[in-house]
Specification:
The protein is built from 12 helices and 53 strands. It has 926 residues and is mainly β. Helix 6 runs antiparallel to helix 7 and helix 10 packs across helix 11. This is Outer membrane receptor proteins, mostly Fe transport.
């Protein structure tokens, strides 16, 4: 089907190309573009027909040629980064000498994301941040994606070398499905994961023209996924950016690492674009990254039923955070709680990270007002991912096909995104299942996997009670050594064999994750400016269909199809008053998912310009998010824990919502029972005495979440030197989607008299239970508020210094703290930057310091229990040197100069320094 689609597009382009009108008289317009102040040629300047698609760029000598069928007079527009744009009226043929003035309004960027139309960043109705092509090139971070954390109000959480999650304004997650990431308008999320995996499947840095970020809800214009914000990446148009570009980047990480030697990483990229005819252009990109990922080695004992003073390596029931298999625990009669011996993550997870990205785009300009685009993207990556467990996305592949028809007032876009998990697997499940392959009975015979756990605990019991010859009794260490006889040691041939086998076994008994899910998306927009004159009016809409297929490994879809349809439409009206000093904008959007009621999400804003470059803004925004497919239908079991989606049909017959205890009450009950036993009570009496601490859960099925935000801001450019950007927001959340932990015993949780059933309570202590992480909603309203201040000052001689600070606060109001979502956001974070890209004609540098406050992290990985993230700061820097003769730039830089080991999410790896060097060749470099 994909081959046929490609063939159809090629035939269509060929037909349109062949059917070009031949009776129209063509005009060749030529000229040269120079710097007005220095007389130097301007390379890569865009020369476009005003209001049309047709155009070209200047070559290495600053010359251009433009073929058109337009009649005199007409207007051309000339623009280049760092220069003021210029319009020229053409009334007769002839050679042109065009002078561009270096730009003085150095921060007056044009943005699109805030209103879905072009506007000045100074007059944006909501907070917005932007990285231009020059910002991308000079970032001190190892790549532009890491450099996003230096923008105001942006949180970047690293869970691996190439897997980083962007978030704004709280409720952060390592699987952030509340934040929309678009590349040329295409949603960059794998359908089965339902969130973008950093830039693994995004744009090559060589092909990236700009990045825009909206902190806070953008649902009114972009739909349910943009609940927490939007990241919009725009790539380079092959008509404008032609020629060959290449980049070679190499570096080192794991320096002074306890668990690995210093290791090299490499990042190679190639881009080529060509205009084959004034109407037809194409580009192709290929990039490849390879490196050794960071190791997750947090071995904190997180067993909930062990008193804090008894936790640690000597705890017989130890459950270490990044050790898997030790979650399997039992309360042995006369001995106490004992866990199985687990395997460290570093022996289970594939840390050899790699990422391949290939892109081909064909652009055809039917006429001066219409363009057709066909694009195919292919990505294949191996990377560490984190959710309820740690996963290895091994050779995970993503395919995207996009067809777009656009004009100056409209666009119609259709795309399909499909994934193939290949050899992806769950590290926690892998460790647990390896533990089922080697256990021996008391006669020394290896038992079958279904008997392995019972047999291991029987060996432990017999050894501890002194019933095994030559094994000292009442000794936990000796009993464990005896129970572990025959255990496959990491690195052994037997361990490697079972690891390799189980990685590819899907479902029960294996660790493999299988998904070949996809989604289809169609959207369009029309601007009515040529029809409606009293105001700027635009409207648009979209439809999406998810087609999920995981063969029972993530969803319960082995014997049935899971499809989800959703869609929405919006209208936006904008009006300028008082000689364009006041701009009023109103937007409204309606969204509907097949499993939930539809919702409206209005947005209203006011922008007031009190003087030149002094702009106040105020907005009321609403957000709306349908539960994603994972929230609705996931059914993923890792040992004794099942992550369960929240639509009614997904839990039918499982008796979870009807018969379970709240996770917090189970923890309190377990601690109380253990304390009673330590004080000399029998286990039976301790259970009976403390069972009333248990609370029957009352969990609702999941439904859409909503928020309302009031925001005010001020942005100004003073004396063309100082940029000030200040904002404050207050948000109220209803029905926030979250996960909660419940524990289901085998017996009924309540007896006939509605008191806690003692049998169910006993099963908790005996570990005859199953834990569920359920998707539901916060039952109470909560609110957040925050403020950001950004200052950027232009010093003499092109030096630039900037800083920003963000404050975020979470208010529980009257809500139950056990039933609200994880805020996962530092109260304060800030950045300082200093640099100069033109210290001399060849040399430049850029420095960045990032700091954030300590906070508690809640996530499914630790069953929604808190883990402390300490305050930390990092320092990045780079120096660059232009090599004009080679049309190249050499950059030497470092991420995290002091090699501070940083945890950014509880259970994630500690991130250290990366020292790197890059060589970038560009035909347009000068």
């Amino acid at each position: 089907m994909k081959k046929q689609l490609l063939l159809n597009i090629i035939l269509l382009v060929f037909f349109l190309f062949r059917s070009e009108p031949s009776l129209c008289q063509k005009l060749m317009l030529g000229g040269k573009v120079i710097n007005k102040e220095t007389g130097a040629t301007v390379v890569g300047a865009a020369v476009l027909l005003k209001g049309k698609w047709s155009g070209t760029i200047t070559n290495k000598e600053g010359f251009f040629e433009l073929l058109t069928v337009m009649k005199f007079p007409f207007v051309i527009s000339i623009s280049s980064v760092g220069y003021e744009s210029k319009d020229i009226k053409i009334e007769s043929p002839g050679e042109l000498l065009i002078e561009l003035t270096p730009k003085t309004d150095w921060m007056d960027e044009v943005v699109i994301a805030a209103s879905r139309v072009e506007e000045s960043i100074l007059k944006s109705p909501v907070s917005i941040e932007k990285m231009s092509v020059h910002d991308i090139q000079k970032t001190p971070s190892v790549n532009f994606y890491d450099g996003l954390q230096n923008l105001k109000g942006i949180e970047l959480t690293a869970v691996g070398l190439t897997n980083k999650q962007i978030n704004t304004r709280g409720f952060n997650s390592v699987s952030n499905s509340r934040f929309l990431q678009l590349v040329d308008g295409v949603d960059n999320q794998p359908p089965g994961l339902n969130f973008p995996v950093s830039n693994l499947f995004g744009s090559s840095e060589l092909d990236l023209e700009s990045v825009e970020v909206i902190p806070g809800s953008a649902s009114a214009l972009y739909g349910p996924v943009a609940f927490n914000g939007l990241l919009m990446m725009k790539t380079k148009n092959p008509f404008i950016y032609q020629g060959l570009s290449a980049q070679v980047k190499t570096g080192l990480n794991h320096i002074n690492d306890t668990y690995a030697e210093a290791h090299g990483l490499s990042d190679l990229a190639l881009r080529y674009a060509k205009v084959l005819h004034r109407k037809l252009a194409f580009k192709t990109n290929i990039s490849y990254f390879k490196g050794l990922d960071w190791f997750a080695t947090n071995y904190t004992d997180v067993d909930v039923l062990t008193a804090e003073n008894l936790s640690g390596e000597n705890n017989p029931a130890r459950n270490a955070l990044n050790i898997y298999g030790d979650e399997v625990v039992r309360n042995l009669e006369g001995i106490g709680r004992v866990s199985r011996t687990g395997y460290e993550e570093k022996d289970l997870l594939n840390y050899d990270t790699k990422s391949l990205k290939i892109n081909v785009t064909i652009n055809y300009r039917v006429n001066d007002d219409m363009e057709l685009i066909y694009q195919v993207n292919y990505g294949k990556s191996t990377a560490a991912h984190m959710g309820s467990s740690r996963f290895s996305l091994t050779d995970f592949a993503l395919n995207q096909h996009r067809v777009e028809w656009k004009g100056r007032q409209y666009f119609l876009r259709a795309y399909v995104v499909s994934e193939n998990s290949h050899d992806t697997y769950n590290a926690r499940t892998l460790g647990q299942n390896i533990n089922l392959t080697w256990v021996r009975d008391l006669n020394g015979n290896v038992v079958t996997p279904d008997l392995a756990t019972d047999t291991w605990f029987n060996r432990y019991t017999e050894a501890f009670k002194g019933n095994i010859q030559n094994v000292s009794g009442s000794n936990h260490s000796a009993a464990r050594v005896f129970a572990d006889q025959g255990r496959y040691l990491p690195g052994s041939d037997e361990f490697k064999r079972e690891k390799k086998r189980l990685e590819k076994v899907y479902g029960n008994g294996g660790a493999g994750i299988f998904t070949k899910s996809k989604f289809y998306h169609v959207e369009g927009q029309y601007d009515f400016n040529n029809i409606i004159k009293f105001a700027d009016v635009s409207a648009g809409g979209n439809f999406r269909r998810y087609d999920m297929f995981t063969n029972g490994t993530l969803f319960d879809d082995r014997n049935k199809n899971i499809t989800i349809n959703e869609g929405g439409f919006f209208v936006q009206i904008s009006k300028k008053l008082w000689e364009d000093k006041l701009k009023l904008t109103f937007s409204d959007r309606y969204d509907k998912n097949q499993n939930f009621k539809g919702r409206m999400t209005p947005r209203a804003s006011v922008v007031l310009t009190v003087a030149e470059n002094h702009n106040f803004r105020m907005s009321y925004q609403t957000g709306f998010r349908n539960p994603i497919s994972v929230d609705q239908y996931i059914k993923l079991t890792s040992g004794t824990v099942t992550v369960l989606g929240g639509v009614p049909e997904n839990s039918h017959g499982m008796n979870v919502y009807e018969n379970s205890f709240t996770g917090t009450s189970v923890t309190a009950f377990g601690n109380a029972v253990n304390s009673s036993i330590q004080n000399g009570q029998t286990r039976e009496h301790a259970v009976l005495q403390n069972k009333d601490l248990l609370i029957k859960s009352k969990i609702d099925y999941v439904k859409p979440e909503r928020d309302r935000t009031f925001e005010i801001g001020y942005k100004s450019l003073l004396s063309n030197r100082l940029m000030i950007d200040l904002n404050y927001y207050h948000s109220v959340y209803n029905d926030f989607i979250l996960t909660t932990r419940v524990v289901r015993p085998q017996s009924e949780v309540l007896a006939e008299n509605s008191t806690v059933n003692v049998n169910a309570a006993s099963e908790l202590i005996n570990s005859q239970v199953h834990t569920f992480i359920l998707t539901t909603n916060a039952s109470d309203k909560v609110s957040t508020q925050g403020a950001s201040l950004g200052l950027t000052y232009r010093l003499p001689q092109h030096y630039l210094i900037g800083g920003n600070i963000t404050w975020a606060s979470f208010n529980l109001k009257d809500a139950n703290p056990n039933n609200v979502p994880a805020f996962n956001t530092p109260e304060y974070l800030g950045n300082l930057t200093f640099g100069n890209s033109e210290v001399s004609k060849q040399m430049g540098f850029n420095l960045a310091w990032h700091w954030q406050d300590a906070f508690d992290w809640y996530g499914a990985f630790n069953e929604m229990r808190p883990g402390k993230i300490k305050a930390f700061s990092t320092f990045d820097g780079q120096i660059s040197c232009k090599l004009p003769a080679m049309k190249s730039i050499v950059k030497i830089g470092v991420n995290n100069l002091l090699n501070t080991r940083v945890y950014q999410a509880y259970g994630a790896p500690s991130i250290g320094a990366i020292y790197y060097m890059s060589l970038t060749f560009d035909e347009l470099s000068h």
